[in-house]
Amino acid sequence: MKEIKGGIIKMNEAVMYDLMEYGYSNCVSKKKENIFSKKINKFIAMLSFYRLKNMAKKIDFSSYIEKNKDICGGNAVVKNTRITTATVYNMIIKQMKYNNDLKYCINEVKKEYPVLKDDKQILMSVIYHIGYTSKRQL
User: Fold this and answer.
1) Is 109 in contact with 116 (CB distance < 8 Å)?
2) Which residues lie below 8 Å from residue 67, measured CB to CB, with a gap of 6+?
3) CA 39 to chain centre
4) Which residue blocks in 1-138 are alpha helix, DSSP H?
5) Residue 137, C-beta contacts closer than 8 angstroms, at least 6 positions apart
6) From CA 11, how far away is CA 1, in angstroms rounded?
7) What count of Cα atoms within 13 Å lies in the side-chain half-sphere of residue 31?
8) Is-contact 45 26, C-beta < 8 A?
9) 8 Å CB contact between 32 and 41
10) Which of 32, 34, 125, 137 has the greatest number of CB atoms lying within 10 Å of its CB?
11) What is the largest CA-CA distance in the chain?
């Protein structure tokens, strides 16, 4: 991650993958053994979600996301498509319930929406949705 002037953050894909996989694995992992570890994991999940949500406020999404009142009722969409960030987010979450591998989930989104060719487009859609529209749903 690199901070540039104006507080905008440019992230490389490896950092995004690591951050999302860490946050999600702590939210959905079924390997919890006792009540104490469940509470710790829930706390870590909430903290990860909170950090990701705050970080999203500092990212420049203009290359990946657009909002236009004439497209999908003004909802945020992946740039040059009519695919909302909510659609991408919900599909990733649904896929991760069955397979914790983020790369696999991204490929499933690409199969469903072939116009989304870039992993970064998908990741940025998910991060945008978490940062600007999502309640804690993980």
Assistant:
1) yes
2) 74, 75, 76, 77
3) 23
4) 13-28, 35-56, 85-96, 102-112, 119-132
5) 93
6) 5
7) 4
8) yes
9) yes
10) 125
11) 50
CA distances from 93 to 7, 24, 33, 67, 105 (A): 29, 9, 23, 23, 9
Tokens of 58: 């500092």
Kindly list the averaged pLDDT for each block of 10 residues, start to end, along the chain of length 138: 46 59 55 57 70 81 90 91 92 84 88 91 89 61
72: left (phi over 0), alpha (psi -120 to 50) or beta: left
Beta-bridge mates of residue 59: 9
Give the three-state DSSP class for 27.
helix
Kindly state the DSSP code that residue 77 receives in the 8-state scheme: E
Per-residue model confidence (pLDDT) at position 127? 87
